[in-house]
Amino acid sequence: MIENRIDYYPTHEHQGIKFRRGHALPFGATMVANGVNFSIYSSAATSCTLVLFERGEAEPFAEIPIPDEFRIGNVYCMIVFELDYERLEYGYRMDGPYNPAQGHRFDPTKILSDPYAKVTGGRDTWLAKPNWDNIYPYRSRLAFEDFDWENDHPLETPIEDLVIYEMHVRGFTQHPSSGVKNRGTFSAIRAKIPYLKELGINCIELLPIYEFDEWENSRESPTTGEVLVNYWGYSTVNFFSPKAGYAATGKFGMQVDELKTLIKELHKAGIEVILDVVFNHTAEGDHRGHTISFRGIDNKTYYMLTPEGYYFNFSGTGNTLNCNNPVVRNMVLDCLRYWAADYHIDGFRFDLAAILGRAPDGSPLSNPPLLESLAYDPILAKCKLIAEAWDAGGLYQVGSFPAYGRWAEWNGKYRDSARKFLKSESGMVREMVQRLIGSPDLYSQRGPTASINFITCHDGFSLYDLFAYNEKHNEANGENNNDGANDNNSWNCGWEGETDDPAINFLRHKQVKNAFAILMVSQGIPMVLMGDEVGRTQKGNNNTYCQDNELNWFDWSQLEANADLYQFARRMIQFRRHHPVLRSPTFFQYWDYASSGFPDISFHGTKAWNCDWSESSRSFAFLLCGDHAKQGIVKDDMVYVAMNMYWNGLHFELPALPEGKRWHLVANTDMGYGEDSFDVGQEPELENQTDFLVGARSIVILIGK
Asked: Which residue in the list 388, 391, 676, 683 is annotated as catalytic?
């Protein structure tokens, strides 16, 4: 009988609050019958005090030293009874040695957040001015398991079928032109789901949505006078808590339900959700930073430290999380399992993932236990795992990231090759072909689905700016234009910045369309940057990490102003999703295993079946035989793509089709709005079936059907 269970009754009392010994696992705060189980790990603390607040109150209503006999190994655990779950905020004081040279920075005057807290309060609305005198700014709260998911579950879309859209939660709807309620929030994205569906997106990748401090490193812009903030959010305060400032209901503490509702609605629309996760560093910074949580609980466990006790800085942001310490490794696993199980997340993109393969002394590991654990974890078994396969400490592992048959990578070489080819650099044909066929030179053991293909992402120029600026223009960031990459491989088409010259503007739009065409006919998984489909500009700023303004916000009026770009992007995505021959899960074999009379892929030049591979060549074509789609399992049309990045038009001789098939035009970037692309099923038949004039710096896509 339940009423006779002894662990439902207190054995101790302090300041009128009743409690008993708790359960060591799970870590964090968990509701149990009549009370809350609190559990926290520290390898070196000498004592731990639980601090309890009424929500929003400046001072705690109780501080309960956890009796030493409640400690199990290095875990302090206690069940506290008769608490008001809804109004509760909690934290800890940790006592222990303060000896930075030994790695210890205990300070019992600080109240510390729980690393495992599922809700973090205290900073509940975006950019609300913090109270710097608050003794406890980031307050741990309980999450309630009362959300009705109905029949929702992760979608498990085959990875080769994804078209990923990299999005910033705030930036997507914050611009006044978005016309939605609660701009810049999770709930506002729901209003834009029809837009994503029409564009053809079936996966969004969200920049960090964990609780972070947007006031970190805040200062005034020297050019605009606006406050500069930590806008991108790559500086985590808590890995388990969704950001309250991204929720319209954050001020009511309802951010968990708001985010879950968004995910449920996206899944109903067939759109997966990938989270950009930042397990390489935290918001506590180096020895000059704030003590919020990890540093005060167990500095030596959570961070990579030099022999002198300083912080290794492989992230470029002051500290590096010690991910291959077993305790931290378990926290990362617990965190990802929680997001996958409790939020139905479909996958994760790991920021500066090369760090996850470093040993506690900073050296790269040949068999990193964390990466192996993630690859084989039973709860994450169907989640997409995507690595940014480099870090700020110089470890570059594109093509060599330890993958265990599971990991895909942001293919930085695809980005660089495509940009160089688009700006007509010589000697790029062989390199570009490798990227178009899924980068077998990098991923021979993994297949083309290991390659996340992108030409732009949040970090760097937008796609429009790639063809409007030769140089970065980051003065507004207040770092004397010293921040951001210098090797952009961009080309301004003859004029730096905005111009009224119709020829330059036509060329820029053509180049944006060329980029979309290349991306959508490449094997691997395409990723589009939010707003590139409408020509979003950052005015030449290639490092907008601190700009909470129109440099980063999606201007929805561009949908009309650049309707040609939007229509072309939408049709290219539709084309890709309609033709399985563009989405092979395996590499091409270069022979006719389907007995169609054509190999699965063949390469051509201005003469059919004769590609110019020379150093001076800036053009080539390829033909995909639809009978070989998905290794001959499904039938598709013939797809022919001619790419001419030479500065004059070239006649391409077309390969002859089998009896009864005719060439039809899908896209020609040399044409104006309305004639540059066609919807699936509406492609006009070519009058001339033997050759095609491909304009200067243009791409032509044909289907044979």
From this structure: 388
Report d(CA 340, CA 463) in Å as an integer: 32
Superfamily of domain 2-141: Immunoglobulins (2.60.40.10)
Tell me which residue of 649, 643, 550 sits closest to 176, measured CA to CA: 550
Given CA atoms 315, 320, 321, 325 in this order, what sign does their dihedral have?
positive
Quick check: is 114 catalytic?
A: no
Ramachandran class of 640: left when φ > 0, alpha when ψ lies in -120 to 50, beta otherwise: beta
**φ/ψ (deg, to 5) at 585:** -80, -10
Residue found by looking up tokens 């951010």 in the block? 255
Q: Among 30-39, 77-86, 391-400, 435-444, which is the least confidently predicted range?
A: 391-400
Neighbouring CB atoms inside 10 A of 466's CB total: 26
Would 2-141 and 585-704 be classified into the same CATH topology? Answer: yes
Work out the number of other CB atoms within 10 angstroms of the CB of residue 378: 6
Query: How many whole angstroms separate alpha carbon 32 and alpha carbon 646?
Result: 69
pLDDT band per the 50, 70, 90 thresholds, residue 4: low
Own/partner pairs for 192-200, CB < 8 Å, 24+ apart?
Answer: 193/265, 193/266, 193/269, 193/271, 196/165, 196/269, 196/271, 197/269, 197/270, 197/271, 198/570, 199/165, 199/533, 199/566, 199/569, 199/570, 199/573, 200/163, 200/570, 200/573, 200/574, 200/576, 200/577
Degrees, nearest 5: CA angle 605-606-608? 65
Question: How many whole angstroms separate alpha carbon 134 and alpha carbon 571?
Answer: 53
The pTM for the full model equals 0.97
pLDDT band at 693 (very low <50, low <70, confident <90, very high): very high
pLDDT surpassing 70 at residue 259: yes
The domain ranges of the chain are 2-141, 585-704
Cβ atoms within 10 A of the Cβ of 190, count?
Answer: 19
Asked if residue 177 has pLDDT above 60, the reply is yes
**In this prediction, what percent of the chain has a pLDDT beyond 70?**
99
Number of C-beta neighbours around residue 592 at 10 A: 15
Q: Band the pLDDT of 434: cuts 50, 70, 90.
A: very high
- For 192-208, what is each residue's pLDDT tens digit? 999 999 999 999 999 99
In the set 351, 636, 637, 683, the catalytic residue is 351
Bridge partners for 31 per DSSP: 36
Q: How does residue 1 score in pLDDT terms, banded at 50, 70 and 90?
A: very low
Mean pLDDT, the chain, whole residue set: 95
CATH superfamily of 585-704: Golgi alpha-mannosidase II (2.60.40.1180)
- Cα separation, 106 vs 86, whole angstroms: 30
Q: How far apart are CA 142 and CA 18, in angstroms?
A: 19
Residue 61 C-beta-side C-alpha neighbours within 13 Å: 13
388 is catalytic: yes
Is 273 strand, coil or helix? strand
Q: Whose CA is closest to 433, among 616, 619, 597?
A: 619
pLDDT at site 2: 47
- Give, in degrees to the nearest 5, the angle at Cα 571 between 568 and 573: 110
